[in-house]
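Severity: low
Component: inverse-folding endpoint
Summary: output formatting inconsistent between runs
Steps to reproduce: submit the following structure tokens with default settings.
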């Protein structure tokens, strides 16, 4: 079993920044995707950003140009730098690690006040 743990959420004012971190307890496979999703109250979970083990990234339209995903493959970690935060970014942010199987973290709350 792989444990996935997120950290770095919190309360920030609009226009501010936060950096989320996610650590997997072990390497998943040589080919894998790590990423972030979010879910706001009353809404479906949506893609924020993903990154492959080759460094290919993909972003949701609402965060392009403001968020940056990166990873440290040796440490089984993925990061999300969030800049120019908006109140609509408020959500629980989940880390997803996908190899042969899919593993999710418990989520970390991000709240952006106006």
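Observed output (run 2 of 3):
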């Amino acid at each position: 079993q792989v444990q996935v743990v997120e950290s770095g959420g919190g309360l920030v004012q609009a226009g501010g920044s936060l950096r989320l971190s996610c650590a997997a307890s072990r390497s998943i496979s040589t080919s894998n995707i790590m990423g972030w999703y979010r879910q706001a109250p009353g809404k479906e979970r949506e893609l924020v950003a993903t990154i492959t083990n080759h460094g290919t990234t993909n972003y949701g339209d609402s965060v392009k140009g403001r968020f940056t995903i990166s990873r440290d493959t040796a440490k089984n970690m993925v990061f999300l730098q969030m800049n120019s935060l908006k109140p609509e970014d408020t959500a629980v942010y989940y880390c997803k690690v996908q190899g042969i199987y899919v593993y999710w973290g418990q989520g970390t709350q991000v709240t952006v006040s106006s």
